[in-house]
Amino acid sequence: MRAKTFTGLSLALCLTLLMAAHLRLNAQEGGRIITIGEDRPGLNFVGQFINSGPNSHQFGYLSRIQGIANVFNSTTVKNESTAMFTFSTYASNVQVVNNGPLRAVNRSGTTTIYYHPEGGASFSDPSSFEAGIPIQFSDYDQQVVLNTSVPFPFTTTHLNTITSTQSFVLGGELLRLGREQDAWRTHYLGTTNTTGTTPTGYFAGYAVGISRDQH
User: Fold this and answer.
1) Residue 163: closest CA among 113, 105, 95, 128
2) What are the backbone dihedrals phi and psi of residue 3, each rounded to the nearest 5 degrees, phi first?
3) Where are the domains of the chain?
4) Which of 58, 73, 199, 205 could make an S-S bridge to 89, C-beta 3.0–4.6 Å?
5) The model's pTM
């Protein structure tokens, strides 16, 4: 009888300690972490870009985040004006390689994702995508492959490695988008605008998580 009682108490104690450890972890991390699953399309992006010489400003909104039921503040209008999560990337050319009509452009920079529950972004004002709380910062590497004889479409691949995150509250829950040193790979399909007009072009795509950076 004592052995059974002791076993029951031990199990209860273990469960209590595990629950306390889980609560401490959540407190340290600043809320529930929305992970970007490996090889699963966890993020969807819609955006535009403005290129100036070797520099590129890419901006837009997230139209889907796996783990969040609704990323818009409207159930009927779903565009940049109602998007609650926006992003802004600043990158510069590292090298440009030509191969016949094909051109490969490599860039590096940084990406910031913002949480702005009021929405209100507009593609006519790129700075409007930098409103709200910056909830994720990441280092950014990009490769663009385009056919110079045909202005569109083009494809791009990017690698983002998270450098820091900031907790935010949505629906009464404290959340974080990813963890430091998590990484995700993005694929965009884009098209250029008429030469000499703004924006330089348009794109849409998705991101999947990759193996956690162990460095």
Assistant:
1) 113
2) -60, -40
3) 1-30, 32-209
4) 58
5) 0.83
